[in-house]
């Protein structure tokens, strides 16, 4: 188990659609352990496998005191009601922009024993679920911004140390 190094904007793994988890073995267990360790730090709500360089459909979360994970997650329900909510990303640190998200979301997948897992919630939980599944589909929250907001975000990124040092 280890806290893994994060991948940042510009890394191709963040823009690639993640492959399904097909093996439920010790390698996958180590991935899950690393996802749980890496998300279980202050200021972190969710972490998708591509954010640590692994192109598999898996994410971990730390919400309302609960730490967990989902393998092969799919969004199965979204509220029709949406709102703009400030969003940030570990792979685009220091920046936050309003993103339109459903106010309620349900994700289904499996655990390491291939047993069904359902995670649902509203507010920040719904936002996190949508954000992490977006990562698995090769999408960053910046991709959901209006054109001018996205241009502004790209300008802001260029001034950040993490962007210049990569």
Q: What letter string, H or E per element, gives the SSE order?
A: HEEEEEEEHHH
- What's the architecture in CATH terms? Alpha-Beta Complex
Determine the strand fraction and express it as a percent band.
25-35%
CATH topology: Peptide Deformylase
Helix/strand/pairing class, anyone?
A: alpha+beta
Which whole number gives the mean pLDDT? 95
Cofactor: Fe(2+)
Binding site for Fe cation: 89, 131, 135
Keywords: Hydrolase, Iron, Metal-binding, Protein biosynthesis
Active site: 132
Map the helices and strands.
Blueprint (H helix, E strand, L loop, with lengths): L25 H14 L6 E3 L9 E6 L2 E13 L3 E8 L2 E11 L1 E7 L5 E7 L1 H13 L10 H12 L2 H4 L2
Antiparallel strand pairs: 1-2, 2-3, 3-6, 4-5, 6-7
Give the tags.
single chain, 166 residues, alpha+beta, two-stranded antiparallel sheet, 7 strands
Describe the structure.
The protein has 166 residues and is an alpha+beta fold. It has a single domain, classed as Alpha-Beta Complex (Peptide Deformylase), CATH 3.90.45.10. The chain contains four helices and seven strands, in the order H-E-E-E-E-E-E-E-H-H-H. The strands form two sheets. It has a five-stranded antiparallel beta sheet. A two-stranded antiparallel sheet has the order 4-5. A hairpin with a 2-residue loop joins strand 2 and strand 3. The longest helix has 14 residues, at 26-39. It is globular and about 45 Å long. The two termini are 25 Å apart. The relative contact order is 0.18. The mean pLDDT is 95. It catalyses: N-terminal N-formyl-L-methionyl-[peptide] + H2O = N-terminal L-methionyl-[peptide] + formate. InterPro entries: Peptide_deformylase, Peptide_deformylase_sf. Keywords: Hydrolase, Iron, Metal-binding, Protein biosynthesis. It comes from Prauserella sediminis. The active site is at 132.
